[in-house]
Amino acid sequence: MMKGTASEAGADQDVMSALLDQYMETNEYHRGDVVEGVIASVNEKTILIDIGGKCDAIVHPREVERMMPKDLYALKPGQGVSVYVIDKSDDDDTMLVSLARAAQQSDWERARKLLRSGEPVPLPVVDVNKGGVIVRLGRLRGFVPGSQLLSNWRTHQGGDESEQRWEALLGQTLTLCVIEVTPERNRLILSERRATDSKAVKRRILEKLKVGSVARGVINNVVPFGAFVNVNGVDGLLHISELSWRRVTRPQEIVQVGQELDVYILDVDLEQERLGLSLKRLVPDPWESLSTLYKEGDLVEATIVNLTTFGAFAALVDKPEIEGLIHISELADHPVARPQDVVKVGERHTVKIISLQPNERRIAFSVRQAKPAPALQEAEPEAIVMEAATEEVIVAADESVIHVEAEVQPDNV
Fold this sequence. Notes:
CATH architecture of the largest domain: Beta Barrel
Strand order of the largest sheet: 1-2-3-5-4
Oligomer: single chain
Radius of gyration: 41 Å
Strand content: 25-35%
Number of helices: 8
């Protein structure tokens, strides 16, 4: 029994020794390698990474000093990370690594894929100089030369020789194609012209977008009739009527340039290369539940939102997405020549629902019928006495006339 136990213990020891030898096996890492590791310890000056070899991997001290406190505190022992090999010490006991450069490697790989596919990508402008603009692709800074920008931007230039000639583009989101990737020279060049000229790429992107699906986009421009949203490198129109279920007069009240948001794919026109988008269809249609909340005859509060020659439109205070018509004949209990004579935009009124047709998306209100009917005033006793006395006098006068007429009748009648 003891002999068997000793054999098992020896076997376990052999397994542990083999695993230890495997763990301690020297790995030949070289500068530029990206290695997977586990954080062993973290403090304000040192981050130690376990990469499974005999030497310690330490994040370069200058990188640790430059890290934002929130980023440093987010690193926890036991957390898996990727590190970029910078250098090894002469005695091979320590290896300098970088977390930031390892993260950049994935961005460089993304840039290479974009270069190979030619797919346009929306990127924000984070800086400008005399020669062009600087954009950010992940953790990488890319350069768009002035010659690769669309010609319409030249109308926004502050001056041909100014260092700030492209300042108007700062904060804008541009649709760009990657045209050069050289990591060893830290060189990433992009082109807006190439992205615009790439019609075949645009068609492939449109073919992937399905009506009824939801996609992520960035607001490129806001105009009086809506907004243009860049979705996967293609600009789509978010019409003002699709911004909200409620009335929108200024698109800027709902969206702003540079805003990132989800949009509903409303229409994809491959022939015209057009993309129709909607924001309001991401939320339930308020008309669908209207009949469960209101019925004809209800008195509700409404705000006047628009005036026409035939009446006024009012929105429910509790559900401003719902607008209904108050016909000119229902604005007051007297004839109205012009709606603006009795109501003003922005005014709040108690109205009666006189017609409710959710399926036809119609609702009609009345101000006139919402007012209480005037009560019949009781006549005062003195007035009743006077009225009765007057009637008696009239009757007496009539009787006198009859009597006189009777007296003057001729004998032969």
